[in-house]
Amino acid sequence: MTAETSPTLARQRAETSREIWSRRLRTLAPLWTWLALMVVFSLVSDTFMRLAVFNNILAQVSILALFGTGMTIVLLTGQIDLSIASVAALSAMISGQLFTNYGLPEPLPTLAALGVATLLGLTNGLATAKLRIPSFMSTLAMSLIASGLTVWTSKGQTVFEISNWAKFMGSERIGSIRSGYLITFAILALLIGHLVLRYTRFGRYIYMTGASPVAARLAGVNTDFIIMAGLTISGFMAGLAGVINMGRLGSAQPQVIQSFLIEGIAVVVLGGTSLTGGRGSIWQTVLGLLIYGTLRSGLDNIAQIDSFAKEFITGLVLLVALIINVLLSGRAERDRA
User: Fold this and answer.
1) Contact 191/272 with Cβ under 8 angstroms?
2) Contacts by 208-216 with C-beta closer than 8 Å and gap 24+?
3) Residues in Cβ contact with 307 at an 8 Å cutoff, skipping those fewer than 6 apart
4) How distant, in Å, are the alpha carbons of 35, 206, 221, 250, 291 from that of 31?
5) Average pLDDT over the chain, rounded to whole?
């Protein structure tokens, strides 16, 4: 080896090492955001660092964790699902009406609701993958269909009589933990999602499809199936979230909770999952959930903040956090590439 090539190799190794550490730091950007929020709220509020507050954070984000698991998979494929809130409302209404009006015993109402939600997700997938309708438009149309069916079948009436099965899933305590089974369902969903994405061939194909659909097809991946499967899973998870949320609220409501859509996407993107596909993970979604839950609970523990201004402050802080995470995620390097 010549004297000229030795410094060149050393420089290349140094650059590679810096890139690795830089990439690791950028990946941990959501973690720094969450820790910063924890420190700020701990200093501002005397009641924030309490066990009850952490229980409240977990209870708040558990429904979003169900939405977020499905949305993470969809975003990783390079698609988006705008129908999750409406599908959740329809699933809750189907379950509630089958139990109240038709007297079906559990778990039949829940299984029927999950079946309809899964079918709607599959329809989204077929429209996107086979008919080549952009997922933005196909799922937006499905959102209108599902919300319309919810109002039509319920005639605008709230169903207050729900099964003990739904109440158990949504509001039953485990010891001193409020909504303990709801939190357990959320943890299981996130864990299964992580295992699928990290350790299965299907998970690798999801990343490949989102990173480069053309290259994935050339490598032998059935990208149409992957997209259909991702949207179908998202529909199922939205249905599960709707049924469990019905148990948490104690009723099936005809109104679509539109905040579920915005928050379900926000927690995934806050964690660092790319909207363009191929980059992200369930663990990053967990960080996004912690950021969002900490922000909402932290603002609730500051009495000096006007309750009417909390939505504005939440949106502003989320926007700043998203900008910071995008800047630290190496957007400039991807653009140059």
Assistant:
1) no
2) 208/278, 209/77, 209/78, 209/277, 209/278, 210/75, 210/76, 210/77, 210/78, 210/274, 210/276, 210/277, 210/278, 210/279, 211/277, 211/278, 211/279, 212/278, 213/78
3) none
4) 6, 25, 33, 35, 8
5) 86
**What are the structural domain ranges in the chain?**
55-281
Token code pair at residue 95? 């379950």
pLDDT tens digits for range 191-211: 999 999 999 999 999 999 999
Q: Do residues 237 and 178 touch, judged by C-beta distance below 8 A?
A: no
The CA distance from 257 to 228, in Å, is 25
253 secondary structure, DSSP code: -
- Contact 293/57 with Cβ under 8 angstroms? yes
Q: What tokens appear for 14 in the block?
A: 């140094």
Q: Using one digit for the tens of pLDDT, what is the confidence trace for 109-128?
A: 999 999 999 999 999 999 99
User: For the chain, what is the total number of helices (H) and then of strands (E)?
Assistant: 15, 0
Total length of the chain: 337
Check: CB of residue 237 under 8 Å from CB of residue 186: no
Asked if 62 contacts 182 with a C-beta cutoff of 8 angstroms, the reply is yes
pTM, 2 dp: 0.88
Q: What percent of the chain is modeled with pLDDT above 90?
A: 50
| Amino acid in the structure at residue 50 | R
Tell me which range, 15-24, 102-111, 163-172, is most confidently predicted by mean pLDDT.
Answer: 102-111
User: What's the pLDDT score for residue 334?
Assistant: 45
Is the alpha carbon torsion for 317, 320, 323, 324 positive or negative?
Answer: negative
